[in-house]
Amino acid sequence: MSYNIKIAAWDVLREDAAVIRNEVFVIEQNVPAELEMDEMDAVCVHAVAYDAAGVPVAATVKWR
Residue 51: which CATH number? Predict the structure, then answer.
């Protein structure tokens, strides 16, 4: 199986990254949503992995 990794600003990847982060951290790991999504998202670089069909998969990175 092949994957495509997109690296971009939050405004570009927000929709896909937020869904994955909510599922993994807020729902599965019980991290409060207000701690998971914060003001640092806007100034960090993000990465999301997509499968061959273009569906975002459970891989996100946030760094500054």
Answer: 3.40.630.30
Q: How many CB atoms lie within 10 A of CB 58?
A: 11
Domain that holds residue 43: 3-63
Q: What length is written for the chain?
A: 64
pTM over 0.85: no
Per-residue pLDDT of 5-63, as tens digits, reads 999 999 999 999 999 999 999 999 999 998 988 898 999 999 999 999 999 986 677 77
Counting the structural domains of the chain, the total is 1
The pair of structure tokens assigned to 50 is 């997509």
